Amino acid sequence: MGRSPCCEKAHTNKGAWTKEEDDRLIAYIRAHGEGCWRSLPKAAGLLRCGKSCRLRWINYLRPDLKRGNFAEEEDELIIKLHGLLGNKWSLIAGRLPGRTDNEIKNYWNTHIRRKLLSRGIDPTTHRPINEPASAGEVTTISFAGSTTKEESDKFITAGINLNIKEESSPVFERCPDLNLELRISPPYQQQAQEPLKTGGSTASLCFACSLGVQNSKDCSCNIGGGSSSNSGYDFVGLKTGILDYRSLEMK
DNA sequence: AAGCCCTCCAACCGCTTTGTG
DNA sequence: ACACAAAGCGGTTGGAGGGCT
């Protein structure tokens, strides 16, 4: 059985939006707010499908959009986030205020891919192009304060591999290609308050260090000399109560 | 000036996920 | 548990515009 169309296609406009359509959409959302995209076109007097309205608003008309060229810092952040998250554009966009997933996706495909290739880096794997897939040492990303068996189980359940220094327990190596499928969930408060256990001689990297920001105040693995008093770490500079690294679950 | 090629990006399409009854 | 609707997401496309010959 086929999927029912999202709208009555016979009576909808397609293609580029006109100024009048934009104005109507903006006026309607200002008056009524976002939501109920399916019924919005009719209510706003637009001959567009709801999906189209949503996309137009999110990608182009939203007042908080930061239009214009990407800064060098934004480039680097996108590269790092892409290395961690893959093509999860909406998650990446969530870390770049004022940028949309569509914008970042386009920017990646048109600029950053080329930039990485010119550096000799495979934009898909983030490895040097000539490097064999199995080469190199395994780097362990340590989730701060999560090195007990019980705690690690939570991540294992979520699909994250951890390196645990415990004789009887298996050693979980970091999967070389982290194919993260992430979801947002409430922050995990309890773990965030537990002290960091460095796991003996195992050198582990916290997220901050794995992102190349050693020595930052957010480093929690001590490799970069960061303060161990940090109970959690700031995933790409955003230590918030709403979304921290623990809020990233993998399927 | 004209034609071709390339780049960029807005918008579309189809699939997945989430919410609801 | 199931079906359906709605929303969200990521891949892809197509057209506008600019550069080059």
Please, could you describe this protein's structure?
- One of its GO terms (molecular function) is DNA binding.
- InterPro entries: Homeodomain-like_sf, Myb_dom, Myb_TF_plants, SANT/Myb.
- Residues 9-61, 62-112 form the Myb-like domain.
- It is found in: Nucleus.
- With 251 residues, the protein is mostly helical.
- The chain is elongated.
- It has helices at 19-32, 40-44, 50-61, 72-85, 89-94, 101-118, 149-158, 189-192, 207-210; strands at 182-184, 248-250.
- It has a two-stranded antiparallel ribbon.
- The chain binds a DNA duplex (21 and 21 nucleotides) through residues 3-4, 6, 14-17, 35-38, 50-52, 54-56, 59-60, 87-90, 101-103, 105-107, 109-111.
Gist?
The protein is mainly alpha-helical and 251 residues long. It has helices spanning 19-32, 40-44, 50-61, 72-85, 89-94, 101-118, 149-158, 189-192, 207-210, and strands at residues 182-184, 248-250.
Q: What would you report as the Rg, rounded to the nearest angstrom?
A: 22 Å
Shape: elongated
Give the total of beta strands. Answer: 2
Number of helices: 9
Q: Write down the overall mean pLDDT.
A: 62
Level of helix content?
Answer: 25-40%
Strand content bin: under 5%
Structural class: mainly alpha
In N-to-C order, the SSE pattern is: HHHHHHHEHHE
Biggest sheet, spatial arrangement of strands: 1-2
Biggest sheet record:
2 strands, antiparallel
Please report the distance between the alpha carbons of the first and last residues: 28 Å
Ranges where pLDDT stays below 50 over 5 or more residues in a row are 1-5, 135-251
